[in-house]
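Input for the complex:
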Amino acid sequence: GESVGLHLPTLSVQEGDNSIINCAYSNSASDYFIWYKQESGKGPQFIIDIRSNMDKRQGQRVTVLLNKTVKHLSLQIAATQPGDSAVYFCAENPHAGNMLTFGGGTRLMVKP
Amino acid sequence: DSGVTQTPKHLITATGQRVTLRCSPRSGDLSVYWYQQSLDQGLQFLIQYYNGEERAKGNILERFSAQQFPDLHSELNLSSLELGDSALYFCASSVRGDTSYNEQFFGPGTRLTVL
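Predicted:
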């Protein structure tokens, strides 16, 4: 598969453990945030989103937390599985804009 | 499968050449976005079209241009190619494109290699 980045921070977890991936965003005017998962050789895949009027949103096995005070976003994955191994990107959308600004990405490796 | 299609999957060309990348959005989506992903720059927004008109512009070089056709498919034209243009080019689409909170669905990308 294709590598999306050779020098990404890497998080290595044991299968079944919970994973927490962090992201610092830059624009205090951003009001919409998205987490994407990118597997080798594929395009980014939407995981979960959150608007700035919320501080927590839950999906299936995933939770996103937003701390606007320190401009920090996190993605929690419960009971991490080998299929969760991928690069995870946070993206922010400035108010009334449409272009997404992506973070640098974190590589998640799940050990069986 | 996101429903967004991109062709070709791979493209190998020489410096100075011109190429066209094609994107078909999901059925019903009016907006198309182009992104470039390179090893040193990460994922960067290039340009957005909404219902045929340019909506937003990011870090797109003057050598690059795009358009969205009446059937809503889009093409990204890259000319006078340089080695540094080698990257993955992604297209994304969303239902709308004139407000925030538009979930963007990404295609599988086109891998461009400039030799």
